[in-house]
Specification:
By secondary structure, the chain is mostly helical. The protein is built from nine helices and no strands.
């Protein structure tokens, strides 16, 4: 069960960072202009509703891109930037197993973690969509004016419990299958 929790935490973090780095902020900035003063002027000319609608659309595109990229075969496993490592608490066991000739089993487990993530990510689409739909004007302003990981923080607050509940069976099944 502890392994499942570690994997689930890693999966949640990667899923949410995928959204935050899904290009939503770049798309928003390019739509508003090249320099910061143009962006500020463009935002000032938009109603709050239009600002929120634009942010929601950019976030939805980021979510879609992240899910389409990560939620497919090799989405995690072959991408060094997002590949899930063997959880830190299992690193010592993995090193020992490799020294004793069990490298194949460690590699299979490592791949299984990433395959579980690839399977679980598409299940997050609806949860992220709901979080975006429920976003308030204040939430949108906090994301736009906040730190680089403001979207990740927002999604963590609004989806983490539901993601954990939804992903747990998928991760448990995959890790159990790996033995």
């Amino acid at each position: 069960m502890k392994t499942t929790n570690l994997v689930l935490f890693a999966l949640l973090a990667l899923a949410m960072s995928g959204v935050a780095h899904g290009g939503w902020k770049d798309k928003l900035k390019s739509a508003l202009g090249d320099d910061e003063s143009e962006q500020t002027d463009a935002l000032a000319n938009l109603s709050s509703e239009d600002q929120v609608a634009g942010l929601k659309q950019a976030l939805q595109q980021g979510v879609t891109t992240a899910i389409e990229t990560l939620g497919v075969a090799d989405g995690f496993w072959t991408d060094e930037l997002v590949r899930i490592a063997v959880p830190e608490k299992l690193q010592r066991v993995a090193r020992t197993a490799k020294k004793l000739g069990g490298e194949r089993y460690v590699d299979e487990f490592h791949e299984t973690l990433n395959r579980a993530a690839e399977t679980a990510v598409p299940a997050a689409a609806e949860l992220f969509g709901e979080a975006i739909a429920q976003m308030s004007v204040e939430d949108a302003v906090d994301i736009i004016r906040g730190p680089e990981d403001a979207a990740t923080q927002y999604f963590r607050r609004h989806t983490e419990d539901a993601l954990r509940e939804q992903f747990a069976p998928i991760v448990t099944e995959a890790t159990d299958a790996a033995g």
